[in-house]
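Hi V.,

You were right to ask for the full record rather than a summary. Here it is.
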Amino acid sequence: MSEINRMSYELSHTNYFMNKMDEVIKWFESKGLKATQSRYAKYKGYIDDFYKKGNPKDLSDLEQRFKKLNDAAQECIQIVQVFDSFKSEKSVGFEERLQKVVYGTDFYNPESKADQPRDFLYELLIASWLNKLGYKIDFEQLTDVVANRNGTTIYAECKRIKSINGLEENFKKACKQLSKIDNNANHYGLVFIDIYNCVADKIRDYEYSDIFAMRKEINDVLENNFIKQNSGLIEKILTKNLENTLGVVFTSVRCLWLSNSTPQFYQDRKVTASSKISDNNFEVLQKLLTE
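Predicted structure:
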C-alpha cells in the first residue's frame, strides 16, 4: 500500500473567523436563507459564553462549556472556508447544496442516525480544498465534487463515517458510485472519507506543548488506531476498484489547543493507493493533489 501524507496546521485566529461570521450571515440572507434562524447564528453566543459567563461551577461545567466553545469554533472555521472559496459562486447546484448545509442541529450528535447538513458541508469543504489547489468546481453534476484543472477532471465521492463500523460499507458505496464515471486519460475518480469520529475518543482537544508534539501524537493515533488496523480492508477495496478510483483520501479536521491557550486548526489528509496501482497512475495521483 502506498501513502502520501499531508499534514498542516493553521493558527485559527478566532477574531478573523468571528468577524467573518457577520459576512457569512449576510451572505446566507442574500441567497434567501433564513440565516438568523440557523445554527450558524448561534455559534458566537456559545463562544462568548465560555469567556463571559463567569467561573464554571465545577469541572463538568467547564468541560461542557469548553466543548461547546471548541465545536462552535470549528463550525465557524469550516463555513468561513466555504465562504472564502465560493462567496461569488452563483450556480444553482452550489446554492442548492448550501441551503442543505445551513440548518440542522447546532452540534454533531453521534447518537443521531442522520447528519445531512454536515455531510453536504463536507462535500463543500473538499470542493474548497480542491479549489485552493487551482481547480474550478462544477456544481451542476451528480457526483459529490467535480473539479477541473488544465483539462483534467477529478470526480470525488465524499463520505463521513461515525465509527469504524461504517468504513467498509461507505467505502464500497463510494467506489460503486464512481464506477458510473467514464474514466479515461483526463477523468479520474477519488474517494474522500472523513475519519475524525473514528478516532475522536483517542484525541485530546487541548494541552499540547507545541505543534510538533501535537503532530506526533495525532499521527500516532491515526496510524495505530486507524490505518494499521484497517490496512487489509483498504487494500482489498482499492485493488478491487482500480478501474474506478486512483485512491482514497482519509481526512481528519479538528480545533486543537496548545497549553498556552492558542488554538490550532489541525488538518490531516492521508492519501492511500492500492499496492497494485500502476507507476503512471501513482504519479498522476501525486500531481492531482498538489498545486
